[in-house]
Write a structure and sequence with these properties.
With 69 residues, the chain is an all-alpha fold. The chain has five helices and no strands.
């Protein structure tokens, strides 16, 4: 799953009324409803898996960019 697919799935989960990553697990359990979604719903642990792809430079980049005038 790409970062973009994860962002879309997270938006879908939030639009269904869930507000935490565990909500994606609840939505995945609904087999009929999952078929109506525009993207597959990932497991709640997917965020951690995607975060592992980032190195130190990627984690430090956004704060450094925000500090520049």
């Amino acid at each position: 799953m790409s970062g973009g697919e994860f962002a879309l799935a997270t938006a879908v989960v939030q639009l269904t009324g869930e507000d935490h990553l565990v909500g994606s697990d609840r939505l995945r359990a609904d087999r009929v409803g999952e078929g109506l979604l525009p993207a597959p719903v990932p497991a709640s642990t997917t965020a951690a898996t995607l975060a592992e792809r980032f190195g130190q430079a990627q984690w430090e980049g956004p704060p450094d960019a925000l500090r520049q005038p």
